[in-house]
Design brief:
alpha+beta, 4-stranded antiparallel sheet, about 30% helix
Length: about 80
């Protein structure tokens, strides 16, 4: 049985190029097969994403490597299946 994780997070941080963040997040979420919703604007990021525990752990590690998102406080919950279409 596959374990799934739902991530909830936000970070208020000035983003100089939100369009570039959108593009990189689309690529990352597609590569990791994450589903959910991300809001990205000049003032930061707000997201609810779900995927396998391995995929969400890789997403967190990737985000923590970025200086502007390194200190995001992640809220996580478990699920028995993918919760987003």
């Amino acid at each position: 049985m596959t374990n799934y994780t739902v991530l909830l997070f936000y970070k208020y941080v000035p983003l100089a190029d939100p369009a570039a963040v959108v593009a990189s997040q689309k690529e990352l979420c597609t590569r990791l097969n994450l589903k959910g919703r991300l809001l990205i604007a000049d003032e930061g990021i707000n997201g609810t994403l779900a995927g396998t525990t391995q995929e969400t752990n890789e997403y967190i590690a990737t985000m923590q490597a970025l200086p502007e998102f390194a200190d995001i406080e992640w809220k996580q919950s478990s699920a028995s299946e993918q919760v987003f279409p």
